[in-house]
Amino acid sequence: MATHLSTEKKPAEGRKHQNMQNDTKASQGQWGRAWEVDWFSLASILFLLMFAPLIVYYFIIVCAQYQCSLTDPLLDLLTGNKHLSDIWNSTPTLTYRAAVIYSLWVTFQVVLYLFIPDFCHKFLPGYVGGVQEGAVTPAGVVNKYEINGLQAWIITHVLWFANGFCFHFFSPTIIFDNWIPLLWCANILGYAVSTFAMIKGYFFPTNAKDCKFTGNFFYDYMMGIEFNPRIGRWFDFKLFFNGRPGIVAWTLINLSFAAKQQELYGQVTNSMILVNVLQGIYVLDFFWNEAWYLKTIDICHDHFGWYLGWGDCVWLPYLYTLQGLYLVYHPVQLCTAHAVGVLMLGLLGYYIFRMTNHQKDLFRRTSGNCRIWGKKPQYIECSYTSVDGTKYHSKLMTSGFWGWARHFNYTGDLMGSLAYCLACGFEHLLPYFYIVYMTILLTHRCLRDEHRCSSKYGKDWKRYTAAVPYRLLPGIF
Ligand code: NDP
């Protein structure tokens, strides 16, 4: 399958097209993340830098020490029953064993990423792997990527099952058994890579024209300076840290939690199987579509800072897997109707998520020469200008799910996220953190993306929002 650039460069005569003209000054170089920091953004960033690590710590510790009750530790502290130091002193520390496991894990993923070129695309029909191109950066660069995430995921999981069923080098509960010591390792890597990325942005950027400096240290540290930091030709920070080690680990972590349930209770509950299956589909989908992922906001628009570096190392593996962790402490066996309801909601959400993303991908790849729901798609022609002054043309589709709402893919994602939470029953709030977080993340992402698109496309974006007035839920928002 051909690569699918999200924007197309047209000949010079096309550039003069009057009705596609935007105000060049307004849009030139303004897309990508912000150049200037308002007070609200700064306050949010400071809040996240200070509290996001504490939030992760809190969730993990309430599971380990309070049977997943979110309120009990607060009550203990407020009533003076316990002091912060009591909780901290009972927290497992960094261990040599965890450091070895984590180092081997990350090294193994680096080896799979850097040294084993993709072979999956040679025998899997429809899979796009191997060397692929990313989207045009604001400086007008098109990066090449080695897409081999599916292969890395398959090799890792084959080895995991080979160990579990044949070799028995380590217990499949290894991740659960070292969960908190591994948290410290993940934090060390997350902070190290974010700090390194910042220093690199100042002193030896991969592409100086794609760097952004706001002059605000905290904003730059959080949101990143470099757009696509790389070491050498192929080690791309964003692709590596976004996908591996965190997302490859996601399914392994869930398997380790299932193994722990088996060890503790002699069975794996249907809720644990549902969480493993639904999140497994999501992860596998991510790697199957890794080439498509090059065209998503993470790779196309976000710079690489703490938000991605620490977020991918710590936030994602620790908080996206809370349902499985919860089910180790509370093994919920759902009645058939509940389990089937969760499965249906999860699959419907996944279908909407995938089809919406697929429709945009197909539309952009064929430049609108395709069929969406059996008809030729409708769209709005638009244009934008990169930093070097080159004018590009693009199209915004108004057919299919993209005619229902401007981000119906997020709506499908949210339905799937709700299904993971509902699989855990209604006894505790903790597993519902994920749907609350995803709602905030995707709503914020939606607003952020729209702000960026508005700067990029100017009045063409206004025409698009008039044609598709709702963001996530038709008729509501
Ligand atoms: P989208 O895939 O929705 O991409 C948004 C971009 O698509 C816009 O910036 C614009 O880019 C282009 N676009 C917008 N409207 C149209 C249109 N009508 N027709 C054609 N192109 C359009 O967003 P994301 O990259 O955020 O998300 C990708 C997926 O990843 C989503 O399904 C989301 O749910 C999921 N996701 C999951 C997360 C998780 O943590 N689980 C986190 C983030 C995302 P351009 O500049 O090219 O015009």
From TrEMBL:
Keyword Lipid metabolism in record = yes
The transmembrane segments are 39-60, 94-116, 150-170, 182-203, 239-257, 264-284, 304-322, 334-353, 417-442
Q: Provide the gene name from the record.
A: Dhcr7
Any single GO CC term annotated in Swiss-Prot or TrEMBL for this entry: endoplasmic reticulum membrane
Give, as in the UniProt entry, the pathway in which the protein acts: Steroid biosynthesis; cholesterol biosynthesis
Q: Where in the cell is it found?
A: Endoplasmic reticulum membrane
Segments for region (Disordered):
1-24
Which reactions does this protein catalyse? 7-dehydrodesmosterol + NADPH + H(+) = desmosterol + NADP(+); cholesterol + NADP(+) = 7-dehydrocholesterol + NADPH + H(+)
The molecular function GO annotations come to:
7-dehydrocholesterol reductase activity
- What does this protein do, in the record's words? Catalyzes the last step of the cholesterol synthesis pathway, which transforms cholesta-5,7-dien-3beta-ol (7-dehydrocholesterol,7-DHC) into cholesterol by reducing the C7-C8 double bond of its sterol core. Can also metabolize cholesta-5,7,24-trien-3beta-ol (7-dehydrodemosterol, 7-DHD) to desmosterol, which is then metabolized by the Delta(24)-sterol reductase (DHCR24) to cholesterol.
Kindly give the membrane topology term recorded for this protein. Multi-pass membrane protein
Under which EC number(s) is this enzyme classified? Answer: 1.3.1.21
Q: What is this protein called?
A: 7-dehydrocholesterol reductase
Name one process (GO BP) from the record.
Answer: brassinosteroid biosynthetic process
Q: Name one Pfam family in it.
A: ERG4_ERG24
Keyword annotations for this protein, in alphabetical order, are: Cholesterol biosynthesis, Cholesterol metabolism, Endoplasmic reticulum, Lipid biosynthesis, Lipid metabolism, Membrane, NADP, Oxidoreductase, Steroid biosynthesis, Steroid metabolism, Sterol biosynthesis, Sterol metabolism, Transmembrane, Transmembrane helix
Enzyme class, spelled out: oxidoreductase
List the biased-composition ranges (Basic and acidic residues).
1-16
Q: Which InterPro entries match?
A: ERG24_DHCR-like, Sterol_reductase_CS
Q: Reply yes or no: does the keyword Transmembrane helix apply.
A: yes
Lineage, uppermost ranks: Eukaryota, Metazoa, Chordata, Craniata, Vertebrata
Q: Which family does it belong to?
A: Belongs to the ERG4/ERG24 family.
- Main localization, broad class: endoplasmic reticulum
